[in-house]
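Work Package 3 (structural annotation) set out to generate three-dimensional models for the target panel prioritized at the project kickoff. During this period the team completed the workflow that converts sequence records into discrete structure tokens, so that structures can be stored uniformly alongside our sequence database. As a representative example, we reproduce one entry of 257 residues exactly as it appears in the project archive.
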Amino acid sequence: MQIIPAIDLLDGQCVRLHQGDYSQVTRFSDDPVAQALSWQQQGATRLHLVDLDGARTGLPVNDAAVKAITAALAIPVQLGGGVRTAERAEDLLAFGLDRVILGTVALEQPELVQELAARHPGRIVVGIDAKQGKVATRGWIEESLTDATDLARRFSGSGIAAIISTDIATDGTLAGPNLAALRAMAEASRVPVIASGGIGNLEHLLSLLALEPLGVTGVIVGRALYDGRVELAEALRAVGEGRLQDVSDPPASAGIA
């Protein structure tokens, strides 16, 4: 079970939203590179970036921060938010990102996701954000009539690297993951599932281990790390994932492990 710290970028700053609400913003740092380096030094083996401006507007407001992070880190970095064209995905991969995450376009243009997955094996991830079981898009602003599990099933044989399953109702609440929804997602697809949303303590992380045999292979953690409710090194030891990084190693220019 891979524990993946999250950095959500809004106007170049590290923030967290409550249940995806842009009017409920908590700002944690104005130096995302320093924050990224801190997670690496504490033992993270992968970093998750969310471009909130991109998700909401489709504009590349945070590209300078993304480039700086990927240049500074030796661990792989993935990003989602506003990746809605092949050109945008290609640009982000050229920045040195290990993976790009496609959300809205996965619902609206699934064939584009499949084309990119074939062109970039192991580097394309589908983000499925669900509210009451239905897929939400465009920064969670728009809701569809598509079941999240149906969308997961559609990409089962597509060659994507993973599905990130986010339960909007629990995201940012620290109340615990939606285990039933995660189980349904894992059972719907042969693709590895990464859990996102609701982690508030170490027990929540450990509860996910029961789903690992079904294909839940990772978990993204945000607010609980920033609030100090979860200590990253302790969590890594508890789930047996990763090793402390040798921070004396020079960063890989591509940001790819």
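Confidence is low (pLDDT under 50) at residues 242-257.
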